[in-house]
Write a structure and sequence with these properties.
Elements (H helix, E strand, L loop, with lengths): L9 E7 L7 E6 L3 H8 L2 H10 L14
Antiparallel strand pairs: 1-2
């Protein structure tokens, strides 16, 4: 969801499966997780994921361990 970069997240790092599957990972610094979670529930996020071929049911959001 590149259109939101700089507003809710920064320092993006992307990863892809070296074996060629369609699995991917993203690391992003998200200073306000509540705002990010609200964004992810929005129609704009749903539209962006659909356009990018992301299946929302496959998303796994993790937080850095404390």
């Amino acid at each position: 969801m590149k259109r939101y970069s700089g507003q809710l997240a920064s320092l993006f790092r992307t990863f892809s499966d070296p074996n060629g599957s369609n699995k991917a990972a993203l690391i992003a610094e998200i200073p306000d997780m509540d705002a990010f979670q609200e964004l992810m529930k929005s129609d704009a996020a749903a539209d962006a994921m659909k356009q990018d071929g992301v299946k929302p049911e496959t998303l796994l959001v993790l937080s850095e361990g404390q």
